[in-house]
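Review form for a predicted model. The reviewer records the input and the model, then writes brief findings.
Reviewer: anonymous (R2)
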Amino acid sequence: MHYLARVTLLIAMTLLMSGCGEHDESVQQPPVPPTEALRRDLQYIVEHKTVGSEIMTIQSSIEKLKETDPAKAEKLLAEYEKLDKSTGGQAAVQAKKMLEML
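Model under review:
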């Protein structure tokens, strides 16, 4: 019986220790293109007819878009200013307008 307890304890310790230690494996997500992020956030506003924290990511995505398509980014930025001041149904209409620009 004493032997069985030692074997069980040894197996338990081995199992516990096998999960310990540093793991250098990290999963890198590919960056989301700014147009895709804009589309996602604007679609949310259209569907829910409300503007929330996504307004900050919309502005950030427009800034990133300036690097690849400055003309489109400037047009979207002008519409973003209107969206930022909108609420409810007006926000949904403005977001839909911006979606069509993408």
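Findings: Residues 34-101 form one domain.
Further findings: The longest helix spans residues 2-18.
Recommendation: see findings above.
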